[in-house]
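Final report, closing paragraph on structural work. Over the funding period we assembled a curated collection of sequence-structure pairs, and we close with a single example.
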Amino acid sequence: MIYVFVVAAIIEGNNLIVGGATMSLVISGNIVSNTSPILNLATVGNLNLLQEIYGTILIPCAVREELLDERAGQTVITAVQSATWLEVHSVQNQQLVAELIPRVNIGEAEAIPLKQILESVAKCRYFE
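Its predicted structure, as stored:
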């Protein structure tokens, strides 16, 4: 996963301008997120930045549940409910999830195998 933390920036079209440096915001591929980036951006009213940068974001069911939990707050819940570009996917490899749970939270434990499946599919398509 790629995490970008920007203190002060300007977005112009598909470019991010930080301190005079310009970076392209167009990133292709399947992006899987855990809870934190979505929660933090929704909290400050900038959840749309994820869509502008990545397009569709894939999240596992556990991440959606964490984001819609009342402890996330109404601002986050409302933003997530209206984010039609968030795609929720169930994770089939529950054995891996169970192995990861002692080390990470449930959202991360489901995001890791979801990303692994997508990378495997991408490799298979590459060799077709």
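Residues 26-126 form a domain with the Rossmann fold fold (CATH 3.40.50). Residues 106-126 form the longest helix (21 residues). We thank the funder for supporting this effort.
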